[in-house]
Design brief:
It is a single chain. The radius of gyration is 14 Å and the shape is elongated. Strands 2, 4, 5, 6, 9, 10 and 11 form a seven-stranded mixed beta sheet that branches. Strands 1-3-8-7 form a four-stranded antiparallel beta sheet, with no helix packed on it. The chain has strands at 2-7, 10-13, 18-26, 31-39, 46-51, 57-59, 67-72, 77-82, 91-100, 105-109, 113-118. It is built from no helices and eleven strands. A hairpin with a 4-residue loop joins β9 and β10 (105-109). It has 119 residues and is an all-beta fold.
Length: 119
């Protein structure tokens, strides 16, 4: 069973930067897509960014130009570099990894890491 462990969250002032990391461990056969979602206070979980195993990236409009997603396939790790942070970026950030199965995929989630941006 795959486990995902996130790190790098915290409190930062508006305009600052943070880098989130998410490492997959355990029994891993192969990982397709990886990415980040977030859940602001009182709102639903929303897509932030995803990256395929080949490196193709997709971003939510609200973070384009400010956030960069990357991954290290050898380490089964995905990163999210966040810059020019805004108070509206405050949320719990969750990473995911889509494990390739014999048939189909299984999505695994991290436990979440809090990011708080003060104005």
């Amino acid at each position: 069973q795959m486990q995902l462990v996130e790190s790098g969250g915290g409190l930062v002032q508006a305009g600052g930067s943070l880098r989130l990391s998410c490492a997959a461990s355990g029994r891993i056969f192969s990982i397709n897509g990886m990415g980040w979602y977030r859940q602001p206070p009182g709102k639903q979980r929303e897509l932030v960014a995803t990256i395929t195993s080949g490196g193709s990236r997709n971003y939510a409009d609200s973070v384009k130009g400010r956030f960069t997603i990357s991954r290290d396939n050898a380490k089964n790790t995905v990163y999210l570099q966040m810059s020019s942070l805004k108070p509206e970026d405050t949320a719990v950030y969750y990473c995911h990894a889509d494990e390739r199965l014999r048939i189909g995929e299984a999505r695994h989630w991290g436990q979440g890491t809090q990011v708080t941006v003060s104005s």
